[in-house]
Design a protein that fits this description.
This is DUF4595 domain-containing protein. This protein has four helices and 18 strands. It is mainly beta and 301 residues long. It has a single domain (44-299), classed as Porin, CATH 2.40.160. A hairpin with a 4-residue loop joins strand 3 (55-61) and strand 4. It starts with a helix and ends with a strand.
Length: 301
């Protein structure tokens, strides 16, 4: 649980000065991002992201795996190839977009070195007030779900493929405050997430260098490849300060709460230089604070 949160949250939020935030043409000069994951203050995993000419080019992991990124004529990521430590292809992911820069299709193709067959295609049909996702995968019938949008084009509901329950999104002043799992009878289920924010705008992220002006929506659509609930923070107007993931086991009156608190450091040019996440778990009243992660940003002067 904690590893997924660490790897897929604001993995590389880049906060610029107010002038830079209002002009997407201003270059960030981002050079690299280093991700460190700690257990009881001992480094257990790291990841290095390399950038050239305002594009993420390579991600290298401490286990020897790495990923290479290429882009289309819209300057949007078009292909990601994942390799193992022996330079064999594990997975190829390709993207198609509308003229407006919204993802319309994602394909995954397992490489010869992959023990799992992950071949799948996700097709996103953008309609008024909703997005329809159709998924086809190896030897399985097609599945569909819907993503409903409110009048502000914020996500308000997402069904699941089975239809057994759905997810509800509650936005206040452009920020997602609660994300709930709801049963098909309309009652709240055993899981929900709540969010708190800083007064810093979330208008600039390394994901914008991948997904362009529609980076928030595209990040959300991309998350269906390996859905992670912490990605919901990318949908909001402000940078996250704290979020909690709560599981309530009603039959036994027992709950588990995973809480993440984020801190940010900036340089004299108002660029983010470090983000730290501290994780805690409240398991039926027993609290543990063993994990933390940090993201260190480097820039070309």
């Amino acid at each position: 649980m904690k590893k997924l949160i660490a790897l897929f949250t604001v993995l590389a939020i880049v906060s610029c000065s107010n002038e830079e935030i209002t002009d997407s043409g201003i270059k960030t000069n981002l050079s690299s991002i280093r991700f460190n994951d700690y257990y009881k203050n001992s480094l257990i995993y790291s990841q290095d992201m390399q950038f050239e000419n305002e594009k993420l080019t390579t991600v290298k992991n401490s286990d020897g795996k790495h990923s290479d990124y290429t882009y289309n004529n819209q300057n949007l990521v078009s292909k990601i190839i994942d390799y193992n430590a022996s330079e064999e292809i594990l997975l190829t992911t390709s993207f198609l977009y509308s003229d407006a820069g919204k993802i319309t299709e994602i394909k995954q193709l397992s490489g010869p070195a992959n023990d799992e067959i992950l071949n799948a295609k996700f097709v996103f049909t953008h309609l008024a007030g909703k997005i329809v996702l159709t998924k086809t995968s190896e030897n399985n019938p097609a599945e569909s779900l819907e993503i409903s949008l409110n009048s502000n084009n914020e996500i308000e509901k997402r069904t699941i493929f089975s239809g057994a329950y759905f997810y509800k999104y509650d936005f206040v002043n452009g920020n997602l405050e609660k994300f709930s799992q709801v049963g098909d009878n309309g009652s709240l289920s055993e899981r929900f997430m709540s969010y708190k924010y800083t007064n810093l705008k979330n208008n600039y992220s390394y994901k914008k260098l991948l997904f362009g002006e529609e980076w928030k929506l595209n990040s959300f659509l991309n998350s269906f490849l390996n859905f992670n609930y912490s990605l919901m923070i990318d949908l909001s107007e402000n940078l996250i300060s704290e979020y909690s993931d709560t599981f309530v086991y009603q039959s036994s009156n027992y709950s588990v709460v995973y809480t993440t608190k984020a801190d940010y450091t900036f340089d004299n040019k108002e660029r983010m230089t470090k983000m730290t996440e501290n994780f805690s778990t409240n398991n039926g009243g027993k609290i543990a604070n063993d994990y933390k992660s940090e993201f260190i940003f480097s820039y070309k002067e």
